[in-house]
Amino acid sequence: MKSDRFENPIIQYTKWQLSWLVLLRITIGWHFLYEGIAKLSNPDWSAIGFLLDSKGFLSGFFYGLANNSGILNVVDFLNIWGLILIGAGLILGSFTRISAIAGMVLLAFYYLSHPPFVGLTFAVPGEGSYLIVNKNLIEFFALAILVVFPTGHIIGLDRFVQGLKPVNKQYRTR
User: Fold this and answer.
1) What pTM value is reported for the model?
2) Helices 15-40, 135-148: crossing angle, 10 deg rounding
3) Which of 2, 112, 117, 119 is the most buried (most CB within 10 A)?
4) Are 146 and 88 in contact (CB under 8 A)?
């Protein structure tokens, strides 16, 4: 018997599934928003130390960003406001998919700058002992889940961006 799962892609969330997905979205959003506000409220904050402490095969790229004051100012601005806007978007369920993808890009840069590989040591020690998988990678994959299981159009401002349409029939709760 042929399955029509991919021909008729109706995704049905249970109330528990939807609740946990929304809670995941909001908590990741809070993490991003808080990190951005903390950086914004510290007039001495800059990414220079993080970039100069980079290791791995892309360290030259990150050193280049740190060694050009004009580019570093842009990196600092994009880092702070990227964190704030991504966080706000995830919390409010506004531009959820774009926010999640932007968060994944930012986390990929963090991960690639400070990869948790054997033999690499950093000026600021990590929060634990990692081998390949760290909090940035875990949060990256959690955002990937939010990209493929969007919730902003059900519980979030994305629903209003769609013109106050009823919940998309493609995504329902049961």
Assistant:
1) 0.84
2) 130
3) 112
4) no
